[in-house]
Amino acid sequence: MSIILALFNQSGGVGKSTLTMNLGHQFAQRKRRVLLVDMDPQASLTTFMGFDPDQEAATIYDALVDDEQTGLVADVPIREDCHGVDLCPANINLSAAELVLVTADMRDVRLKDALEPVRDRYDVILIDCPPSLGLLSYISLVAATHVLVPIQTQFKAFAGTNLLLNTLARVKRRANRKLGVAGFVPTLFDARRSQDDRTLRAIRERFMNVAPIYEPIPWSTGFADAAEARLPLALYDKRHKAIASIDAIVTQLDELL
Ligand SMILES: Nc1ncnc2c1ncn2[C@@H]1O[C@H](COP(=O)(O)OP(=O)(O)O)[C@@H](O)[C@H]1O
Ligand SMILES: [Mg+2]
């Protein structure tokens, strides 16, 4: 049975797209068949994976909205074997989906339905959510079997915490009763900053009874350098110490399979 994991946090810059790419790569290292789905109109994941979003002729948008002429929805477009994982790209067109889908029927399950035909081909599908609580995040959570929440170890991360938990509760109540919370991943953790340490402790206290809290992903320029080189960290610098943190998360997530 495959898992569909949505990486969700309505804040931007917390490391969602970076984590999506790197978790995907580590799963692939374990011979898991992996699909990454970019659900962010800003298309960071598509870019990190080495593509120019503006040049992508077909994106996840096409699989979400009806063709104006035919009324049909396209299959999910898949770029195969990008460093061992498949990718369904996005680009700025996706920003129109929120509006176009407002009046669409069955809109909540559009992504779920789009992924259904390819689900058998994968063990793990990772959905990189946009930094918002809007429709694109909502339909991602509806499509998911589990949600993973990257959370920055900075005090401001707490500002949106209640909103985030309320959103998860609403999705579970209304649209996806079986949605599991796979856990919280503290990100961009800088052990030299006392604020990060305090926030990490606060995160553990706050979420302890909600779901597992993983060991923090360290702040390291290696992640940004690897992204700039359009590579997962493990391919950019295979001895980088942060790879162990990613791998530890994959070890636990793999038990969901
Ligand atoms: N652990 C990390 N250490 C340092 N920089 C990071 C780390 N994770 C991500 N970054 C950088 O932070 C920025 C935001 O990361 P990104 O994954 O795009 O966040 P999000 O998807 O939540 O908006 C990017 O420039 C990325 O390279
Ligand atoms: Mg992102």
Describe the protein.
The chain is of the alpha/beta class and 257 residues long. The protein has a single domain (3-254), classed as 3-Layer(aba) Sandwich (Rossmann fold). The chain is 37% helix and 15% strand. The protein is built from eleven helices and seven strands. The chain has helices at residues 16-29, 44-48, 60-64, 97-100, 110-115, 135-143, 161-174, 194-207, 221-228, 233-236, 243-254; strands at 3-7, 34-38, 79-82, 85-88, 124-128, 146-152, 180-187. It has a seven-stranded mixed β-sheet, with helices on both faces. Helix 7 links the parallel strand 6 (146-152) and strand 7 (180-187). Helix 1 crosses helix 11. The longest helix has 14 residues, at 16-29. The model has no long low-confidence stretch (mean pLDDT 96). Bound molecules: adenosine-5'-diphosphate and magnesium ion. Magnesium ion (MG) is lined by residues 16-17, 40, 44, 128.
Produce a short descriptive summary.
With 257 residues, this protein is α/β, with parallel strands linked by helices. It contains 11 helices and 7 strands. The chain has one domain: P-loop containing nucleotide triphosphate hydrolases (Rossmann fold), CATH 3.40.50.
